[in-house]
Amino acid sequence: MLYEDNEYARARLAKRERLLGSGAGPYPPRFTKTHGSAAVRSDYPANEGARVRVAGRVVLLRLMGKASFATIRDGAGDLQIYFKSDTLGPESYGRMKDFLDLGDFIGVDGKIFKTKMGEITVAASEWTLLAKSILPPPEKWHGLTDVETRYRRRHVDLSVNPPVREIFVRRARMISSIRAFFDAEGFVEVETPSMASRAGGAAARPFKTHHNALDIDLYLRVAPELHLKRLLVGGFEKVYEIGKNFRNEGVSTRHNPEFTMLESYEAYADASRVMEFMEGLLRKVCRDVNGAETFESGGSTMDLSRPFKKIAYLDAVSEALNFKVTGQTDSAALRSAVTAKIPDAPAVAGWELLLEMAFDALVEPNLREPTFIVRYPRRMSPLAKACADDPELADRFELYVGGREIANAYSEQNDPVEQLARFREQSGGDDEKIDWDFVEALAYGMPPAGGLGVGLDRLFMLLCDLPSIRDAILFPLLKPERSSQTPR
After folding, report:
1. Is 78 helix (H, G, I), strand (E, B) or coil?
2. Predicted model pTM
């Protein structure tokens, strides 16, 4: 059971029962606050002697004879509380000493003053227990140190580690900044389905589920791309969506099966326009999150104020392999060049897979400064238009910063005949895997457009120099600790 092996929890449960027996319920429905901790501190000394009502979790408790101190923590920080028997009265002061524990939520009515040590404090004239904490906080309230436990019990991690809470406040600031940028550019935020009868929009393994009432299989989306493009067909010219995508693949420091993506589409634009747009977006978001267009990443300073580099995909791979790669390079020669640089490379077949392996291992980790990788091989980009000067290359780019892919974009394919041919090539000729609704939508006519996809978890990792995607997600997916669902 949840409490049976914890002697501290049993003692707190006993206090709860005593409170209930006395008619003083330890879980009242509400408490009216007049000030947060930040307001009390920032308005001093103008508010010295003012009467305030504050509330928060007890994170420090020093019980003494007829005067005691506590520190409470709210969403903005910590605030010291002074309890004095003469002010509270012996009964209320005694109840405080008997029943108050670390982790409890309390409300306090009192006056603001500054102690001899210079600490801004509220002298309690009344106090109310708002929620009895049955499970004690981590020892000495220093916070959780085991990383797995921090992720698994994020509620405790947030309560004892204010810097972690601040990280997710910054994440919220990032999302707000992105929305403000798109809204200012005239984009309309939309929502598209998270479940569909086909998994389309990206080459990834989907999660499959079943709808009982309709008796059909459905897939959690791997990307919202095809639905968003159908909106362009319908007459929207600038749309974006911030939402969850799902990919039934591996878990690592850069991959979580459920992740947050930004996708946008602008009619009458192309990849070069999206490239300019992405530079402006990244600079604004960095300013709003970090206060400047520079930030630390992996021990070095990234400067977004300078123009971003541009390198062609095949040129980058050729330089890394010390071997000229073109669209006509055969797979055997490419495999020899790759294994010469990566001796333990897995024996993969296929030109595209060999290129991806070389790029991932030899190029991507070295793309520290903001860099656009452009002009991808066409066969690696089935939803992109070909470059005007070379039909074997796609008018596509990916943005890399700090050795991480941040964005993917291209000039969208809007020829329904060409798109169907690409879908058939991608599906190996299996027409059951083709999204015919999207092909039909294209047949009605879609304007030329530039599309953009940004992994927001990875972007946040970059801006805050976080080592793992789990640090950027409030509740990352974890393997259950036990098969039983009975709470400990």
Report:
1. strand
2. 0.89
* Residue range(s) occupied by CATH 2.40.50.140 in the chain: 7-137
Each residue's pLDDT tens digit, 379-389: 888 889 999 99
Beta bridge partners of 58: 72
- List strand residue ranges (DSSP E) for 361-479, in order: 371-377, 386-387, 390-401, 404-411, 449-455
What does DSSP assign to residue 363?
A: I
Q: Under 8 Å CB-to-CB from 412, ≥6 apart: which residues?
A: 229, 265, 383, 384, 385, 446, 448, 449, 450, 451
Is the CATH number of domain 160-308+369-472 3.30.930.10? Answer: yes
Do 460 and 466 contact (CB within 8 A), yes or no?
Answer: yes
Rounded (to 5) percent helix, strand, coil in the chain: 35, 25, 35
Degrees (nearest 5) of the Cα angle 408, 414, 415?
A: 135
Q: What is the pLDDT of residues 343-390, one digit of tens each?
A: 888 887 789 999 999 999 999 999 999 999 999 999 888 889 999 999
Asked if residue 70 lies in contact with residue 83, where contact means CB atoms within 8 angstroms, the answer is: yes
Q: Identify the bridge partners of residue 469 per DSSP, sorted by sequence position.
A: none
Question: What is the DSSP secondary-structure string of 345-361?
Answer: -----SHHHHHHHHIII
At 192-225, the pLDDT tens digits run 999 988 776 677 889 999 999 999 999 999 999 9
Residues 6+ apart with CB under 8 A from 84: 66, 67, 93, 123, 124
